[in-house]
Design a protein that fits this description.
The chain is of the alpha/beta class and 401 residues long. 39% of the residues lie in helices and 14% in strands.
């Protein structure tokens, strides 16, 4: 049994009309799970992120055209380049939709109408098609017309107001976290819609908004507001509901201390040589430690600055207290943990000077239908001729059947 036969989604075809990160991360995930993803790019332009560098993959010849950013979300896809204003290319895309199960796009609401390629124009023609539309604010509401970018969603959606130091400026997360979480929500929604399609024959529209996803991501911070009526504020690396649960300066660096309950707190105080703090009535419970946060954090911080990081972390591990280091990106991707979990992979790429590209692996581990890495991120339009030939062959088969 080959890899395609083992995968969970090998009988699905996904047309990916999206670009940047939210949509492409969704379709890459579906591709890793076995889906046949056809990336439909604007002829002469391609995905914007192809040019978002440096760094770029060093090419075997000619100028560099594939950025590291583009590589992050576009493996397991074939690329076709169409001119959306060209009548023949529009017909080719409609012919592809005849063979597709899913369309993913992130045009602004109404942006495909002028090409005759919007869901509202095609739903009757393709009643079984699952159509996932990703935008900044969704198809309804006062901001539906506004463009959507991850940074704007983090700001508008409240995340930046609770990220950063208390006295510092609002901060974004170090990666496009709203885009990535929107991609994950999109993949879940698509699989749910496909289950419904398989049961009833009915496709449907999925309307996903970056800002909606960002509001959902507020999680406990959002419900903290809904329960108390008070908006959470920035608190650096401290946790709003647990103390101590933050970064501390050590004698030779920084470490994370994540004391999750009162029993761990008592063991932690004993470990660092402050047993009196475990019995102090001001800090006996997590609720009391939150009430007296400034006092207990200051006492712990003073003591921890005298303890080497690795000594503390080893002691916490022995005593079943949660904590850990703060690795650089290089440290974690070169770690034995990353190697053991196949989180750094290599794929053959003929257009790269080295003949390969190194990428971050998929975290999903399935025992019977594992993810596969079949196609490196494609050059823009590299598969146009092959896909057009498939369309023509499918048309001939229909005529002779």
């Amino acid at each position: 049994m080959d890899d395609m036969e083992k995968t969970a989604l090998n009988d699905l075809r996904i047309l990916d009309l999206s670009r940047i990160l939210a949509g492409p991360s969704c379709t890459q995930l579906l591709g890793d799970l076995g889906g046949d993803v056809i990336k439909v790019e604007r002829k002469g332009h391609g995905d914007d992120t192809r040019k978002w560098g440096p760094p770029y993959v060093e090419p075997s010849e000619g100028p560099a055209t594939e950025s590291a950013y583009y590589l992050a979300a576009n493996r397991n896809k074939r690329s076709i380049a169409f001119d959306f204003e060209d009548t023949q290319d529009q017909e080719n895309l409609l012919a592809l939709m005849e063979t597709a199960d899913v369309v993913v796009e992130n045009f602004k609401p109404g942006g495909l109408v002028k090409y005759g390629l919007d869901y509202t124009q095609l739903a009757a023609r393709f009643p079984a098609l699952v159509w996932c539309s990703i935008s900044g604010f969704g198809k309804t509401g006062p901001n539906a017309h506004r463009p959507g970018y991850d940074l704007l969603a983090q700001g508008y959606g409240g995340l930046m107001s609770i990220t950063g130091e208390a006295e510092g400026e609002p901060m974004k997360v170090g990666v496009g976290i709203t885009d990535l979480c929107t991609g994950l929500h999109a993949a879940v929604a698509i699989l749910a819609a496909l289950r419904h399609r398989d049961a009833t024959g009915e496709g449907q529209l999925i309307d996903l908004a970056l800002v909606d996803v960002q509001m959902a991501m507020l999680a406990n911070q959002g419900t903290n507001y809904l329960v108390s009526g008070k908006s959470p504020t920035r608190a650096g690396n401290q946790h709003p509901n647990i103390v101590p649960y933050q970064v501390f300066e050590m004698a030779d660096g920084h470490a994370i201390v994540a004391v999750g309950n009162d029993a761990q707190y008592q063991r932690f105080c004993a470990l660092i040589g402050l047993p009196d703090l475990a019995d102090d009535p001001r800090f006996a419970t997590n609720a009391l430690r939150i009430e007296n946060r400034e006092i207990i954090v200051a006492l712990l911080a003073t003591r921890l600055r005298d303890i080497p990081r690795d000594e503390l972390l080893a002691g916490m591990d022995r005593n079943n207290i949660a904590g850990g280091p703060i690795n650089t990106v290089g440290q974690i991707l070169e770690s034995d943990q990353a190697q053991a979990r196949d989180m750094k992979i290599e794929m053959t790429q003929e257009t790269a000077k080295s003949g390969k590209v190194t990428m971050i692996g998929n975290p999903i581990k399935l025992s019977r239908t594992p993810v596969t890495f079949r196609h490196p991120p494609p050059l823009c339009g590299a598969d146009t001729e092959d896909v057009l030939a498939e369309i023509a062959q499918a048309h001939r088969n229909e005529q002779t059947s």
